[in-house]
Design a protein that fits this description.
alpha/beta; Rossmann fold; 2 domains; 6-stranded mixed β-sheet; 3-stranded parallel β-sheet; 12 helices; globular
């Protein structure tokens, strides 16, 4: 379905907006559009629906931040997230470009190539889960794969249910989830993020019950992790160089309740600003830690 070269009397922005709005009624299961996704959360959702994007930015970073689902090897690399290669993008002749509000500054340039659909999921100041479900359904409709959203949503709920049963050993403690910024600061995850949404559905308790920003985290000094008894700290990959070595020499760190009790674990990377696939990955990984502790 090609959208270029039509209605030359309209401004290009007006036409592209109208074309994107008119897309849905014309999509059929036999004519899946060529989609470029500039957002990993959207791209992973597409892959789980069986319709991967033709291209995403920074393909080498996928295995660092997303991991699952696997990115198909034929996916074209569009360059970095901040410096999209517009020549490559135009050569792909996409029917539509999926984006996010974070990249809204690129919209005028992107719309010269194809209609743009942006999905506002994170930084809403509340639980992102309802918006993720809504976006999942919108993506499936735009792909002409209506049933795929129902399947993915149902599979995700089943994952939460199964993971809750498997990870029951973690219910007797309070869980910190952090990303190290350096030896003195962490990004700690709480309300307004997918990690909290998953923990709520698994019946687990977040040790960080203080405020977070709209993205679901707070950047704090490591000393603010002290004072929470019966806590368990998970620190997510990737970890900056020398952080763990430095913490090993820190008397303050050695006195943290989770260090003294040996309840501290390195947690595989999960896309913290992801969608349903990231939430399922997080739930399954948590369940594995719960099963280990129960053994």
């Amino acid at each position: 379905m090609k959208l270029r070269g039509l209605h030359s009397g309209l401004s290009r922005r007006t036409f592209l907006t109208a074309a994107a709005s008119a897309w849905l009624p014309h999509v059929s299961a036999a004519a899946v559009p060529r989609v470029v996704s500039l957002d990993y959360a959207v791209a992973s959702t597409m892959i789980e629906m069986g319709v991967p994007p033709v291209a995403v930015p920074s393909t080498p970073d996928w295995d660092v931040w997303v991991v699952e689902p696997r990115l198909p090897p034929e996916t074209v690399n569009l360059g970095s997230m901040n410096e999209v290669n517009f020549e490559v993008l135009q050569s792909l002749s996409p029917d539509i470009i999926f984006s996010s509000p974070y990249l809204e500054a690129l919209r005028p340039h992107l719309e010269r190539i194809a209609p743009v659909k942006s999905f506002a999921v994170h930084n809403t100041g509340s639980s992102p889960f309802p918006e993720i479900v809504k976006a999942t359904r919108e993506i499936s409709q735009l792909l002409g794969k209506d049933a795929a959203a129902d399947t993915l949503i149902e599979r995700t709920h089943e994952t939460f249910k199964t993971a809750a049963a498997r990870g029951g050993a973690l219910r007797d403690r309070r869980l910190f989830f952090v990303s190290f910024m350096d030896p003195y600061h962490v990004r700690v995850y709480g309300r307004n993020g997918i990690f909290q949404d998953v923990m709520d559905r698994m019946g687990l308790t977040n040790a960080w019950d203080r405020p977070t920003n709209g993205w679901g985290f707070a950047t704090i000094g490591v000393e603010q992790l002290a004072g929470v008894e019966n806590s368990h700290l998970f620190y997510l990959d990737p970890v900056p160089p020398d952080v763990l070595e430095s913490l090993g020499r820190s008397p303050l760190w050695q006195q943290m309740p989770f260090v003294r009790s040996g309840r501290i674990d390195r947690f595989p990377s999960v896309l913290m600003f992801g969608a349903l696939p990231a939430m399922s990955r997080f739930a399954n990984l948590l369940a594995e830690f719960g099963e280990r502790d129960a053994a």
